[in-house]
Amino acid sequence: MANLTQRLPQNVPGDFYVDATCIDCDACRQIAPTIFRDHGDQSSVYQQPSNPEEKRLALMSLVACPTGSIGTIRRDHTRTGIDAFPTLIDENVYFCGFTAESSFGAWSYLIVRPHEEGGNVLVDSPRFSRPLVKKIRELGGAQTMFLTHRDDIADHAAFAREFGTMRVMHAADGADRLNVERVIEGDAHDKLDESLIAVPVPGHTRGHMVLLYRNKFLFTGDHLAWSPARETLTAFRNACWHSWPEQTRSMEKLLKYEFEWVLPGHGRIHHDTAEAMRSHLQRCIEWMKATP
């Protein structure tokens, strides 16, 4: 819970504030960009909410914050943020909120599907929080958890125990050590069921994978995200822990797949036509090849 005595001086006066424990994960700035900004190595409130929708987004940011660094002087309205998650992105795909500090605030997602189609899928792990667990249970539980890579596993074991979830992860990122139920090996894609394809994309880590759902939604972990500054898809050169050349080659693999959404763990979400996404991906690859 945020501490008013540690309120950062960069916050404007008012109800909402960010305290000194902020780790600059960017979650609040994605959820409520009209309220929060990056003032250097941390976030702060640069404008207090001016209408009910902005207030709702600020409260969602408070709940999503992995370090509990966002606070309000009034504490009687936080339930609005809790009840907002999981929040619908498109069709049957939800953002879980409740990000985890151990994953540096990485975003996780829930795909809601009928049991006859394989049931619900968690993509990476959110923070294990009882209000979120209750909502996921009401939506049908979590039959599968796809772990893109070792950085964003957070509370995966707790969710597996709670829901009897089958976890999917690549061997090269320590799946066996984590007692993962379905271990992917090698570089070939793996069709998990009729609508889910796991694609190994080593580079950020040795065993990083992305998940393609219905040839439309691409869950990319830390492999690929939207860059508002460059207005195209991008990779994170400064956060490539294994091999930049290998990540570049992995990016080229994705040209054979069709998708309209990029849903990353870190970085910005983006939606466009499949043709536009392919063009953006090609631009990203060209940039990566030119980046030492």
Structure notes:
The chain is built from 7 helices and 19 strands. With 292 residues, the chain is of the alpha+beta class. It folds into 2 domains: 71 residues, Alpha-Beta Plaits, CATH 3.30.70.20; 208 residues, Ribonuclease Z/Hydroxyacylglutathione hydrolase-like (Metallo-beta-lactamase, Chain A, 4-Layer Sandwich). It has a 7-stranded mixed beta sheet with strand order 5-6-7-8-9-10-11, with no helix packed on it. Strand 16 and strand 17 form a beta hairpin. It is globular, with a radius of gyration of 19 Å. The relative contact order is 0.10.
What distinguishing features does this structure have?
seven-stranded mixed sheet, six-stranded mixed sheet, alpha+beta, Metallo-beta-lactamase, Chain A, Alpha-Beta Plaits, 2 domains, 7 helices, about 290 residues
Strand content: 15-25%
Oligomer: single chain
Largest sheet: 7 strands, mixed
Poorly predicted spans: none
The CATH class of the largest domain is identified as: Alpha Beta
**How are the strands of the biggest sheet laid out side by side?**
5-6-7-8-9-10-11
Tell me the Rg in angstroms.
Answer: 19 Å
Q: Give helix % range.
A: 10-25%
Instruction: Spell out the CATH superfamily of the largest domain.
Output: Ribonuclease Z/Hydroxyacylglutathione hydrolase-like
Mean pLDDT: 97
CATH topology of the largest domain: Metallo-beta-lactamase, Chain A
Shape: globular
**N-to-C SSE string, H for helix and E for strand:** EHEEHEHEEEEHEHEEEEEEEEHEEH
Number of domains: 2
Tally the helices: 7
How far is the first residue's CA from the last residue's CA?
42 Å
**What structural class do the secondary elements suggest?**
alpha+beta
Please identify, by name, the CATH architecture of the largest domain.
4-Layer Sandwich
